[in-house]
Amino acid sequence: AFFGCAGLASVTIPDNVTSIGMAAFKDCTGLTSLTIGSNVTSLSFSAFRNCTALKEITSKATTPPACYDQAFGGIDKSNCIVYVPIGCQALYQSANQWKDFKNFTEGDPTSISQVNTADRREAQSYDLQGRRLNVQPQHGIIIKNKRKFLK
After folding, report:
1. What is the pLDDT of residue 148?
2. Whole-model pTM?
3. What DSSP assignment string belongs to the chain?
4. In percent, how much of the chain has pLDDT > 90?
């Protein structure tokens, strides 16, 4: 479908897709980021072959999708980070073709991984439009600025 589309930079395969067809994204040399939906079970022959700029793969599937011959052929597997669901890293590291990647991280790279419940009085608070708040909100998202500026 996108064979040789060099201008394609990012692809997100929706959760309702179950397989990626033969050479679907082959030679997409501008592709840097790939997200594979949670229900994808297979990547056909050369599905992402020669996507040489690929640096980040996020797979939402708890079972590693089956990879047919050269599904990830030509990708620098030592420099591409593969994000997998929490608790699934060992499965990916032992699965055909997935095990060739060297950098795995469990969890979604866009999710919040830590919440700091430090003293609310020590920093300025801002709303989501970047406006400084004079009153400390009791609920919602609070953005704090803890930087200290030298004079």
Report:
1. 46
2. 0.72
3. --TT-TT--EEE--TT--EE-TTTTTT-TT--EEEE-TT--EE-TTTTTT-TT--EEEE--SSPPEE-TTTTTT--TTT-EEEE-TT-HHHHHHSTTGGG--EEEES-TTS--------GGGSEEE-TTSPEESS--SSS--EEE------
4. 69
